[in-house]
Amino acid sequence: MTEAAPKSLWRVRDFRRYAGADAISKLGSEVSLVALPLTAALTLHASPFQVGLLTAAEMVAFLLVGLPAGAWVDRMRRRPVLVAADAVRTLALLSIPAAAVLGVLGLPQMYAVALVTGLCTVFFDVAHQSYLPSIVGREDLARGHGTLAANQSLAQLAGPGIGGWLVQALTAPVAVVADALSYAGSALLLLGVRADEKPGGRDVRGGGRLWPEIAEGLSFVAGQPVLRRVAAVGALMMLSFGLWSATVPLYLVREVGTSPGTYGTLLSAGAVGGVAGAWLAPRIAARLGTGRAMYAAAWAATVCTAPLALTAAGPRLLILPVALAASGVATTVFSVAQGAYRQSICPPHLLGRLSATMRFLMWGPMPLGGLLAGTLGQLAGVRVAFWAACGVYTLAHLPVLLAPRIRQVS
Known about the structure:
Layout: H1 13-43, H2 48-59, H3 61-64, H4 66-74, H5 78-102, H6 107-135, H7 141-170, H8 172-191, H9 210-222, H10 225-256, H11 260-269, H12 272-288, H13 290-305, H14 319-344, H15 351-363, H16 365-379, H17 382-395, H18 398-401
Helix pairs in contact: 1-6, 1-7, 1-8, 1-10, 2-6, 2-10, 2-16, 4-6, 4-9, 4-15, 5-6, 5-8, 6-15, 7-8, 7-11, 7-12, 7-14, 9-15, 10-15, 10-16, 10-17, 11-14, 12-13, 12-14, 13-14, 13-17, 16-17
């Protein structure tokens, strides 16, 4: 007798709204990933260091409030946090095209918008990850994370291309409008989610308990060997992403000579593998087990990212999308497997703090990557900064590869 196929998560109303909000928000964010640095580089003629500083400003909030955000979110219902974060990001981003139309846009405003949107993103991401178990059962976490990973990959597939051509056709500041509208749409969809959830943390009136609650989240991660390795991988990935975000636009547009539209298309083409990886991840995890899936994906990601540093003008430009597509399969499988694993072992009252602690450890190095990219680009040239980004990206999965016992995790 065959086992009945699991019910599609898309038949769950709350999940449709939750995942739909996630999809359009990520699409807009990918547009901004192209539009914001190009606004600084093309409209404001920013130097490599100034572009690196913009990247750092957007992500420094993970260092400043990443840990307390988890404790605060665990004391609150997640949906209001998500809606409020989307609303503030909408207004902050709309200020960029408004200032450009008035002729008063400058780098200080760009830095301020990056700081505000980064702060909102910290709270949104922590609440968003913690909200999923309230919408789907724990037995469906892998499928839920697979859907979110598919959203990310589809956004990476379409968003940079859309962003690049919007920049080319309408100027970079106007292209930022797409991201602002995506956050507004996300907020509207999330307002319709009715999942029953309760804050997991202690009474907010006992405010003196904040740091002990943060320490509880840190202690949980510190006591889990697999989570420590995953956090190390994430930290190296985000360090490379900080380098990458500040370097690649300058390298491809200024050094190689690609147009904004071609630049966005190249990044979009590289996301094809992520779409495949999101579809494959739950199936690979089910067949191999979580630990073997993470270990195999780490090996594949290392091999596939090694050629990236060879990217250059001419035929070698194709190395970029091909290597990113191949590595996208592996990194997405790794991401889905580790996401389902960590939520499956975490007590419900610690979900927000687990998410915040992992985000703090993993995303904290990203602003440092932006500053490093800007410094390297200013002192040694954009090409050297690009090589550094590729090198760190290639070595990012070593913490897992050096721990083969991870394969035993179920």
